[in-house]
Amino acid sequence: MLQALQIENYALIRSLSITFDQGFTVITGETGAGKSILMGALSLILGNRADTDILYDKERKCIVEGTFNISTLSLQSFFEENDLDYQDTTIIRREINEKGKSRAFINDTPVTLNTLKNLASILIDIHSQHQNLLINDSGFRLNIIDQYAQNQETRAAYRESLTQWRRTEEKYNQLKQQCADAALQQEFHNFTVKELEQAHLQPEEQTQTEQNIELLSHAEEIKEHLYRAAQQLSEQDGETILQQLKSVESECSALTHLGNDYQEIANRLHNAIIEIQDLSYEISRKEAEVEVNPQELDRLNERIDLIYTLEKKYQVENIQGLLDLKAQLEETLLHYTDNQEALDQAESDRARLEKQTIQLAQKLTKSRQAVLSKLEKSMMQRLSLLGMSNCQFSIKLETTDAVHDNGMDQAIFLFSANKGVAPADVSKIASGGEMSRLMLALKSIITDSVLLPTVIFDEIDTGISGETANKVAKVMSLLAEGHQVIAITHLPQIAATGKQHYLVFKETSQGQTTTNLKMLTNSEREQAIATMLSGAHVTESAIATARELIQSKTQS
User: For the chain, which terminus, N or C, has the lower number of CB atoms within 10 Å?
Assistant: First the structure.
């Protein structure tokens, strides 16, 4: 149970300490006095998010601390699993600093908000008038049925299995796409290697081919020039260069007996004649070798075009680049894997988890169906206590083929407030007051079922009055026999039923407004309830009525 709540620097609360007893506690106050602020502060230690807007003094941090007696809840395993020190009297603290940074503690050990929420969900359930709308949600309805059926473990196992199945499904689809991409890439690599193999490329081929094309392109010109040069050396009609040189040699040789200088000249001329004869032979040979071959030139042009096309296609500069690419792709293909084994495993896991998830969903369905009759009966009893003895309430559970976050079921709450009126979906037929009583009945049943130590009702009595308010107070009082119940209310019938009564009020001092809270004495309580009955102008008659109301609730 919640034993105490300490609030520092939250919204209009400067500093506030509240202690709570077992049984039924009521909190009242005028509209705008700060009851919602009180609930907002409490929500911080339940794991809700906050920012610097909630700071009363922007220069100081906000602290909200709740003290809980958990000795009867068997939570030792929770504390062990989360590496926390277990204490029968456990303190949950939340701090929001000046920059909006939040810290949470359980028995002075820092924890995450998720851990804080998990513990808080075991300790407190807060129901507000806004939650009445949840009854329209099928997921909420199924959650109510599951809590009544004690399906928490099966529901958690189902959610975990569903999460794993969805993850495996995603992994399978990713691997399937990867395999398709890999197969396509392998096909492309194989095509590239085959194309390069069929080209029969040689490292120096490009340079040689380009040179051969250049020569063949000018073959006729080369042949013509070489032919004329050969003729001028040795075959020209009339006196050739060689004949002239031989004549010069003959003239100079006639002078060799006159000295060494003339002998040297003659020798040089002789050597020149031999060299020119050799050049003449070489030029003739070269001319004979030059072949005008248009077919070969066409072949070489086709070859060089192929080489250029491959280089451009694969974005390399030369044949060596193509050969390197071929070697690289061949190495890649040697180590190619299509992930088929991983895909097969993912498919197997997917099928296993799908089967497991559906089995757990079916288990949930079976368990839900087994408690529907008992839950409907309990609801009719609670609604009768709430002054709705002529109503009808039933639950229609529809099972689908598709799984969702809550199983394979859709739950419809059917309701009729009057005899002779066919039950219909509660979201389409129930008034605001009827919705409040329906939710109170559900909450009271579930609170008993899941053994929540503390339940807080935040102004859920909207839309009810008179005798109905008395009946709502009676149900809350009965619930408080086994649980700690805290009700924020504007109804005097409920306020009079509480065993502990707090009043929320505002004070203004030195130009600043703060929210405060005080526990009322018997006389103060009579005054507060009289105000709720008659308004700001409290008469002796209103006080007497308030006193009688308190006495009647105490005696009942």
Answer: C
Bridging pattern class, strands 13-19 and 124-128? unpaired
Question: What's phi and psi for 335, nearest 5 deg?
Answer: -105, 15
Question: pTM score, two decimals?
Answer: 0.65
Distance (Å, whole) CA 179 – CA 268 = 82
Contact 201, 307 (CB under 8 A): yes
The region of weakest confidence among 255-264, 319-328, 444-453 is 444-453
**Residue 103: partners with Cβ closer than 8 Å, 6 or more residues away:** 94, 95, 97, 110
- Cα 179 to chain centroid distance, Å, stands at 25
**CB count in 10 Å sphere of residue 454:** 19
What number is the average pLDDT over the span 508-530?
89
DSSP symbol at 459: S
Residue 278 C-beta-side C-alpha neighbours within 13 Å:
6
Q: What are phi and psi of 76, to 5 degrees?
A: -60, -40
What's the gap between Cα 47 and its chain centre? 20
Burial zone of 472 (CB within 10 Å; 0-12 exposed, 13-18 middle, 19+ buried) = buried
Contact between 388 and 434 (Cβ < 8 Å): yes
pLDDT tier for residue 392 given thresholds of 50, 70 and 90: very high
280 Cβ contact list (under 8 Å, min separation 6) = 230, 233, 234, 242
Question: What is the token pair recorded at 534?
Answer: 């008659």
For residues 509 and 409, the model is more confident at: 409
Beta bridge partners of 416: 392
- Size of the chain in residues: 556
Q: 148-151 long-range CB contacts below 8 Å, 24 or more apart?
A: 148/371, 148/374, 148/375, 148/378, 148/445, 148/446, 148/449, 149/367, 149/368, 149/370, 149/371, 150/449, 150/450, 151/364, 151/367, 151/368
